[in-house]
Specification:
It comes from Flavimaribacter sediminis. This is Arylsulfatase. Belongs to the sulfatase family. Keywords: Calcium, Hydrolase, Metal-binding, Signal. It contains 16 helices and 36 strands. It has about 850 residues and is α+β, with helices and mostly antiparallel strands. Strands 6, 7, 8, 9, 10, 11, 14, 15, 16, 17 and 18 form an 11-stranded mixed beta sheet that branches. Strands 25-36-27-32-33-34 form a 6-stranded antiparallel beta sheet, with no helix packed on it. A hairpin with a 2-residue loop joins β22 and β23 (about 580-585). α6 (about 315-325) crosses α8. The longest helix is centred in the middle third of the chain and has 34 residues, at about 370-405.
Length: about 850
């Protein structure tokens, strides 16, 4: 007969608890915060299970209670009980989309159809005050740990990490994730989509993998590591192994760039039938089937975080055609904003008397002032973006449906959060066909972008939309992603359903919440305690507040239990406390990443104050009327900043992308390779920008000649490559897909040994200048020579060089080229090298700042701050 016993957690550990409980029914938990252990079956038998007291993970091994004699016939076996979650613990599906503001989904008044979210809202609850951090990695770190983003090392994205505890991009061992907690308590755990919480310098196949999803408590990972990914051909991983499933579904698309004067470069052919948005839904469904068919009783936890709607916006043509036929955006972004605002008021998701903040004519040109060509381009941009959102919601719906197909839906808690921050404006007012260009401070004009009109959303564009649309998609708020002091950057919305646990169908909740609240909520509904010790390490306290109380209709209008929350991102900051919001006035647009940064972001600010009970969307600044409140909240912010590792404040943006950080190659100025190697991420690849360097390849050409890639870094949208084309040596710089500069030998290499060398002599002071708000040392000219067997075969002066970063989702490859090539006109990947690589040497001569240089720049900084 199956028996259930309950036992309080005892200081001496799980083994004693189980021993004392035996087979009898122990006293139920009553009025105590102590954890309760539940056991089933006969202890010591193979079918026995137990829950955990939760204070220590993994739990101490229970004492062997069998009998051991000289032989097995006289001995009695005893099995440790299998760990399971508490009885009736729900499955958890935690969904979060990317770069999506409040006005994106139709569920909250948007015009983009999101029927999957709509259906959940009808069956569960809508939440209007779920806050993010205003940026990708930080929100995600907070979401999976239940701690503030600085507390877990993610004050900024991992690509901007600096050597301070709040900014080093390392989730410390004292901050176990919700994946680790649930896994050790018997859940099957998985992560699908974006992993932006692995340090850039630990993203290679050299590991370590402790900061990958599988190292942070997730049994299974299928997705990409980094901020964004080409959805047609991502740098994709299953667990920690690179995979290339998209190679099995080649597209026949071709882009004709032969006429440089053409208004639009035509794209012909058929796109791939593979896209990551669908592929990850397929993989999640397959994983669910594997777990369910193996053990139908094991609860599932899925962290489902697709790349949509982060740039590049890569939907399928089918979805672009659907959205285009709806003509949602023909009257421009201001009218769109007004229409969404009216929808929101009719639906009751914003206060009925709310006023819409004015359009920012000073930073975003009004629609009526645009040329017809610009209007045509911008409509194309936003239709592709909207198609991406709708496509993603459809695929999310397939995953939700599979819970129903497996009979698990009734006891599944689904958290569907719209966005990890507000809508991104990182395309700038004009948008961009290549987001990599933005991160290098380049904003291509409309006529240049129009050439990519047919390519928008395809594999030939790394596209982003005009910031005018982004402002509209944050309605009723203003500003964007990155702006931590404005609700447009941090006020998300979400839908939560749990048929077994939430009965208030279609309810609306407006309590203040933050992404750190997801973890304590999940722990409360599962009945699992936050551990005090994990792997022998004392854990920091969970900093979020459970919002499970809102699931009860009786608490629909209850005061928020999350009463204080700081916000900070790249020198812009805010503090929420009991309905008040102190904010710093925005002093930088998201597309302005390379201007001198505020040297004193704590104090050198214009402060704004809002009473959110009367100014729901930050429309009425009352700082002048309440100077004492401003003073009080400034002091409170500083205390929060000290408590949660926010200091030192740093307002720099682009400078931090190129800042030195640990890596496999840190401090090395000579790297030698002797065999084929692919897939090294940019964080562990040789960083050649803003430096002099020499690349020397020693190869042996076989009889009959050779071709193929010798070495490359980056891809179609920015990078370099040294290769043999029809036997001739070539070196090429892809300059943000705006230009391709080529050096080449005149003749094919004869059979035998050869030395190919590319040398670049840089004429700037390098990335060190950026630490002093001086960007004049980057992207400077370079004198170059290309040699074959010691003879110069080509030389050029590069008047400009790439200043900040190559294409981040493409790797450093030797002997082959993965994903996309640096020059479509010359070859298609993988383009393997058919010569023998004997040796590849890369020497880097980084500029060194003199004391005089540093003194001069410090003086300029002080003058600027005055």
């Amino acid at each position: 007969m199956k028996r259930v016993s309950h036992c309080r957690a005892l200081p001496v550990g799980l083994a004693v608890c189980l021993l004392l409980s035996g087979h009898a029914y122990a006293q139920e938990k009553s009025g105590s915060d102590e954890a309760v252990v539940q056991t089933t079956g006969t202890l010591g038998s193979p079918n026995a299970t137990t829950t955990l007291p939760g204070n220590q993970l993994p739990p101490p091994a229970p004492k062997f209670e069998g009998v051991i004699k000289d032989d097995a016939l006289q001995s009695k076996p005893w099995w440790p009980p299998r760990v399971v979650p508490p009885k009736e613990a729900p499955n958890i599906l935690m969904i979060m989309t990317d770069d999506a503001g409040f006005a994106i989904p139709s569920t909250f008044g948007g015009v983009i159809p999101t029927p999957s979210m709509d259906a959940l809202a009808a069956e569960g609850l809508r939440f209007t005050r779920m806050m993010s951090t205003s940026l990708c990695s930080p929100t995600r770190a907070a979401m999976i740990t239940g701690r503030n983003h600085h507390s877990v090392g993610f004050g900024v994205i991992s690509e901007q990490a600096t050597g301070f505890p709040g900014y080093d991009s390392v989730i410390g061992v004292d901050n176990a994730t919700i994946g680790r907690i649930l896994r050790d308590n018997g859940y099957a755990t998985s992560w699908f989509g974006k992993d932006h919480n692995t340090p850039t310098y630990e993203a290679s196949q050299a590991g370590p993998f402790t900061q990958w999803p599988t190292g942070m408590g997730f049994d299974y990972f299928y997705g990409f590591v980094g901020g964004d990914a080409n959805q047609w051909g991502p740098n994709l991983f299953r667990n920690t192994t690179q995979i290339y499933p998209f190679n099995d579904f080649p597209s026949t698309l071709k882009m004709d760039r032969s006429d440089p004067d053409a208004k639009i470069w035509p794209v012909t052919g058929k796109e791939s039938s593979w896209n990551l948005i669908t592929a990850m839904a397929d993989d999640a469904i397959a994983w669910m089937d594997r777990i369910h068919q193996t053990d139908p009783s094991q609860p599932l936890f899925i962290n489902y975080v697709p790349g949509s709607s982060h740039a590049p916006h890569h939907p399928t043509k089918e979805w672009v055609d659907k959205i285009h036929a709806m003509h949602l955006f023909d009257d421009g972004y201001e009218k769109l904003r007004e229409r969404i605002f009216e929808n929101q008021q009719k639906m009751g998701v914003i206060p009925p008397d709310l006023e819409l903040t004015p359009w920012p004519d000073d930073i975003l040109p009004p629609w009526d002032t645009l040329s017809d060509e610009a209007k045509k381009l911008y409509i194309r941009q936003v239709e592709v973006f909207a198609a991406y959102v709708a496509y993603n919601d459809h695929e999310i719906g397939r995953v939700i449906q599979h819970f129903k197909d497996l009979g698990r839906y009734e006891n599944t808690l689904i958290i569907y959060q719209n966005g990890d921050n507000g809508t991104s404006a990182e395309g700038g007012p004009e948008g961009t066909f290549n987001e990599v260009a933005f991160f290098n401070g380049v904003r291509p004009p409309v006529d240049t972008q129009m050439k990519f009109y047919d390519a928008w959303g395809t594999e030939f564009a790394y596209n982003h939309m005009s910031a005018g649309w982004s402002w509209a998609f944050d309605t009723p708020f203003d500003w964007f992603k990155q702006n931590a002091s404005r609700l447009g950057g941090v006020n998300q919305n979400m839908v939560v359903t749990w048929p077994k646990g939430i009965k208030d169908k279609g309810g609306l909740r407006d309590q203040f919440m933050h992404v750190i609240d997801h973890v304590p909520t999940i722990l409360e509904v599962t009945g699992i305690a936050a551990p005090e010790i994990v792997d022998g390490i004392k854990q920091t306290p969970i900093e979020g507040t459970s919002y499970a109380y809102t699931f009860d209709a009786a608490n629909a209008d209850a005061p928020s239990r999350h009463t204080t929350q700081y916000f900070e991102m790249m020198g812009q900051w805010a503090l929420y406390h009991d309905g008040w919001l102190l904010s710093t006035k925005v002093n930088r647009t998201p597309w302005d990443a390379f201007s001198p940064a505020n040297p004193d972001p704590l104090n050198n600010q214009i402060f704004q104050l809002y009473d959110l009970s009367t100014s729901w969307n930050q429309s009425e600044d009352i700082a002048a009327q309440h100077p004492e409140k401003v003073k009080e909240m400034r002091a409170m912010f500083l205390e929060e900043a000290k408590k949660y590792q926010v200091l030192p404040l740093d307002a720099s943006v682009g400078a931090r992308v190129a800042a030195p950080r640990p890596s496999i190659i840190a401090g090395r100025d000579e790297l030698v390779y002797t065999s084929v190697m692919t897939g090294v991420p940019q964080g562990d690849a040789p960083y050649l920008l803003n430096s002099s360097f020499t690349i020397t390849a020693e190869i042996t050409v076989p009889e009959g000649g050779a071709e193929g890639m010798i070495v490359t870094s980056g891809g179609r949208f920015a990078g370099y490559g040294m290769y043999l084309l029809e036997g001739k040596p070539v070196f090429l710089w892809n300059m943000l897909d705006l230009d391709r500069i080529k050096w080449e030998g005149k003749e094919a290499l004869a059979p035998g040994k050869h030395v190919i060398e590319f040398e670049s002599k840089y004429e700037g002071l390098g990335v060190g200048t950026m630490a002093y708000n001086n960007f004049s040392g980057i992207g400077r000219p370079a004198e170059t020579t290309f040699k074959v067997d010691g003879v110069v075969v080509d030389s050029k002066r590069m008047e400009k060089t790439i200043p900040i970063i190559l294409q981040w989702d493409e790797s450093f490859d030797i002997g082959s080229d993965t994903i996309t090539g640096v020059n479509d006109a010359d070859y298609l990947p993988p383009f393997p090298l058919t010569a023998k690589l004997d040796k590849l040497t890369i020497k880097i001569d980084r500029p060194q700042l003199s004391e005089a240089d540093i003194a001069k720049m410090k003086e300029a900084m002080l003058k600027a701050s005055d």
